[in-house]
C-alpha cells in the first residue's frame, strides 16, 4: 500500500479575530447533546485547536523538494535558534526517566552506552622460524633451512612465545616433515613449559602425535581429531611459566628424518575480550577447533563467532568467551543485550551439551554469578538461568533444535528502574521477538560489575563436539538513574 501523501491545504480557522469561547470542563466531558445547536464560539474553538495542532505536527514533516532532498511526508526536525540548547526529541522509560535523546545539535545522545561486537577478526597463520629451535637431547643438525635427525632420542623444541600474541587461541599446528623409511618413528608433542637462559626444558606433554607409517613429504596437524591442548589456559599463549612449545622427538631411527616447516593457525579474541577453555581436571584443555569466526551466510547474514565444546580424554570441557567489564549492576541500572544465535550439533549418543549465553557478574572476584540463556543435556527447551546465591531456571517454552537460528534479548533492571522491589532485579528474556521469561531475583549481588559471557561445552565425560554461533552482540545501559537534558 502506498503511503498517504501529505495534504497541501492548510486547515486554517478562526486565526485572526474570530469569536472563540473555550467550553467549560463539564461541557468538554459530555460533548454535544442530542438536538443541541452548538454555539459558533464553541465550533470556532474546536476548529482553531485543530488548526494549531495541524501547525505543530506540520512543522515535524517536510513538504518535499527542499535542498536536503528529504521526500515529502518524512520527518524533518530543526532547531529554531542557536540559543536553544534543549533536546529536539527525548525517549523515556515507563517511569518517565530519560534514556536517550536527540540533542540541540541533532546528535543522538543521552547518558547511555551502546556497545557493539561484530566479530570482525579472522584466523591468522604464521610459519615458525625453524632456526630458533633449541636442542633438547642428542645432536640434530640445522642445515639448509631444515632440521635433520639421524639418531635415536634426538629432540628439538620450538617456542610460540614472541610469535603468537598473548591471549591467542591455537586452532591448528601443522608440521611438514619427511621420513625416509617406514621404520622410523617420529613423535610430535605440544607441551606447556618455559625456556630460560637459552636452555630448553622438557615439561609434561599435552598433545602427543606419533607418526609410524608412510614415507616422503607428510603434513601432520597436531590438533586434528579434537585433541587436547595446554594445561589450564589450554590453547591460550602467554605468561613466562606458560610458554607453549612444540617438541619433535626422533626414535627408532634407521636412516634420517627432517622437519621442514611448522605452521600455526590461531584466533585472537576482540579487543577487551578474553578466552578460556576449562576442563574437569587440569591435565586437559581445548580442542583444536574450539573457536572460529564465521563469515555471513544464509542462516545468519552477518559475522558470527563459533564456540565448540568436546570431551577430550574423558575430561569434560568448555570454550568460554568473556567480554570486558562494561557496566556496574546496581539498583539504578537498566541493561539490555541483544544477539542472534545459531545452533549446530546439539546431540549425539552422549547428549551432554551445555550452552550458556548471556551475562556474568563479578561477585567480588568470585566470577560465579550469571544471567544467561541456558540449555544442557536432553532439556527440551531453552531456559533462562539465574545463578545467584542459588540457581533458578525458568522454562522459556522455546524448544532447542539443531541448526536453528534464534534472536535473543536479555534485560536486567534494577530496583529503581523497575517494580522488582528493594535489593531485587527484574530479569526478562525475549526469543524471536516474544517475551518468554519475566522473573524477579534477590540472590544476585546488588552492586558489582558485569560483562558478556558465552560458553559452549559438555556436562559429562563423554560427548561432543557441540557448537553454537553468536552473531552481532549489542548492549545498551544507562549511566544515571535520571538523565539530564543534554
Strand segment tally:
31
Give a short account of the largest sheet: 9 strands, antiparallel
What is the beta-strand fraction?
35-45%
Overall structural domain count? 3
Can you walk me through this structure?
The chain has about 475 residues and is mainly β. It folds into three domains: about 25-100, no CATH class; about 125-265, Galactose-binding domain-like (Jelly Rolls, Sandwich), CATH 2.60.120; about 295-480, Jelly Rolls (Sandwich), CATH 2.60.120.200. It contains two helices and 31 strands. The radius of gyration is 32 Å and the shape is elongated.
Topology:
Elements lengths: L24 H6 L9 H19 L30 E4 L5 E5 L5 E2 L2 E6 L6 E4 L6 E4 L3 E3 L2 E4 L4 E6 L9 E11 L5 E9 L11 E7 L4 E6 L21 E9 L5 E11 L6 E6 L11 E4 L9 E6 L7 E6 L4 E3 L4 E10 L9 E9 L7 E8 L4 E7 L3 E9 L5 E9 L11 E7 L2 E8 L6 E11 L7 E5 L2 E6 L8
Antiparallel strand pairs: 1-2, 2-3, 4-31, 5-15, 6-9, 7-8, 8-15, 9-14, 10-13, 10-15, 11-12, 11-14, 16-19, 17-18, 18-30, 19-29, 20-29, 21-26, 21-30, 21-31, 22-23, 22-29, 23-24, 24-25, 26-27, 27-28
Name the features.
486 residues, mainly beta, Jelly Rolls, 3 domains, 9-stranded antiparallel β-sheet, 8-stranded antiparallel β-sheet
Amino acid at each position: 500500500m502506498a503511503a498517504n501523501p501529505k495534504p497541501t491545504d492548510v486547515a486554517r480557522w478562526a486565526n485572526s479575530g474570530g469569536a472563540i469561547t473555550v467550553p467549560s470542563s463539564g461541557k468538554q466531558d459530555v460533548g454535544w447533546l442530542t438536538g443541541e445547536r452548538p454555539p459558533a464560539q464553541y465550533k470556532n474553538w474546536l476548529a482553531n485547536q485543530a488548526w494549531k495542532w495541524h501547525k505543530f505536527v506540520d512543522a515535524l514533516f517536510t513538504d518535499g523538494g527542499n535542498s536536503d532532498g528529504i521526500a515529502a511526508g518524512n520527518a524533518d526536525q530543526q532547531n529554531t535558534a542557536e540559543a536553544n540548547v534543549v533536546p529536539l526529541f527525548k525517549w523515556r522509560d515507563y517511569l518517565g526517566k530519560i534514556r536517550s535523546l536527540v540533542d540541540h545539535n541533532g546528535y543522538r545522545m543521552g547518558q547511555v552506552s551502546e556497545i557493539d561486537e561484530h566479530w570482525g577478526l579472522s584466523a591468522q597463520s604464521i610459519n615458525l622460524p625453524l632456526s630458533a629451535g633449541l636442542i633438547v637431547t642428542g645432536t640434530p643438525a640445522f642445515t639448509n633451512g631444515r632440521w635433520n635427525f639421524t639418531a635415536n632420542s634426538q629432540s628439538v623444541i620450538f617456542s610460540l612465545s614472541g610469535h603468537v600474541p598473548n591471549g591467542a587461541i591455537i586452532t591448528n599446528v601443522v608440521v611438514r616433515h619427511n621420513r625416509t623409511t617406514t621404520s622410523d618413528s617420529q613423535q610430535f608433542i605440544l607441551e606447556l613449559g618455559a625456556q630460560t637462559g637459552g636452555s630448553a626444558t622438557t615439561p609434561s606433554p599435552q598433545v602427543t602425535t606419533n607418526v609410524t607409517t608412510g614415507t616422503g613429504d607428510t603434513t601432520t596437524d597436531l590438533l586434528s581429531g579434537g585433541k587436547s591442548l595446554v594445561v589450564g589456559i589450554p590453547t591460550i599463549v602467554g605468561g613466562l611459566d606458560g610458554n607453549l612449545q612444540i617438541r619433535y622427538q626422533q626414535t627408532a631411527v634407521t636412516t634420517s628424518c627432517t622437519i621442514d616447516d611448522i605452521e600455526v593457525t590461531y584466533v585472537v579474541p576482540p579487543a577487551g575480550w578474553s578466552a578460556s577453555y576449562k576442563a574437569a581436571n587440569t591435565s586437559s584443555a581445548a580442542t583444536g577447533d574450539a573457536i572460529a569466526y564465521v563469515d555471513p551466510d544464509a542462516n545468519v547474514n552477518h559475522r558470527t563467532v563459533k564456540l565448540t565444546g568436546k570431551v577430550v580424554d574423558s575430561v569434560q570441557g568448555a570454550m568460554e568467551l568473556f567480554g570486558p567489564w562494561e557496566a556496574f549492576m546496581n539498583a539504578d541500572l537498566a541493561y539490555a543485550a541483544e544477539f542472534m544465535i545459531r545452533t549446530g550439533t546439539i546431540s549425539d549418543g552422549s547428549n551432554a551439551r551445555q550452552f550458556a549465553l548471556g551475562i556474568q557478574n563479578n561477585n567480588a572476584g568470585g566470577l560465579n554469578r550469571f544471567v544467561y540463556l541456558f540449555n544442557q543435556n536432553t532439556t527440551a527447551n531453552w531456559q533462562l538461568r539465574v545463578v545467584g546465591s542459588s540457581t533458578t531456571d525458568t522454562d522459556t517454552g522455546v524448544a532447542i533444535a539443531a541448526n536453528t537460528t534464534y534472536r535473543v534479548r536479555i534485560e536486567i533492571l534494577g530496583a529503581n528502574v523497575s517494580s522488582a522491589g528493594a535489593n531485587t532485579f527484574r530479569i526478562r528474556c525475549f526469543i524471536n521477538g516474544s517475551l518468554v521469561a519475566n522473573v524477579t531475583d534477590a540472590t544476585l549481588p546488588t552492586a558489582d560489575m558485569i560483562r558478556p559471557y558465552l560458553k559452549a561445552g559438555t556436562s559429562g565425560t563423554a560427548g561432543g563436539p557441540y557448537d553454537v554461533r553468536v552473531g552481532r552482540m549489542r548492549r545498551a545501559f544507562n549511566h544515571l538513574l535520571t538523565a539530564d537534558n543534554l
